[in-house]
Amino acid sequence: MAGCVITEECAMAVSVDRVWKVACSGEALQKACAAFIDTVEEEGDGSPGTITTLKLSAAAAANAGGSLMKTCVMVRDHAARVQRNEVLEGGKVRAQLKSQVTEVKLEAAGEGAALPRLG
């Protein structure tokens, strides 16, 4: 079985601290992405092993291939601002793979700006 890595950068005019806060809080994530996420349920304290279940809005579900996305935190490094999750359930891509892991690394991109590196 061959592995595959897809990466993307997405510059944001939002501070790194604010983006990290949203990435680490189900409540903040739901508020920031209200057009895409209806509810967020977290089982755990955010550390490795925490299960997060996102119920997507109808518009987001149409593009994602389903209305539910469930992930498990593998790594959450506050100092390095890196989070790695295993996708347990949901999405077009996950349905076609044996396993799927996502990683976000946040870097500062100037005053009040962040550069998330998604992979």
From TrEMBL:
Domain of life, source organism: Eukaryota
Name of the protein in question: Uncharacterized protein
Organism: Avena sativa (Oat)
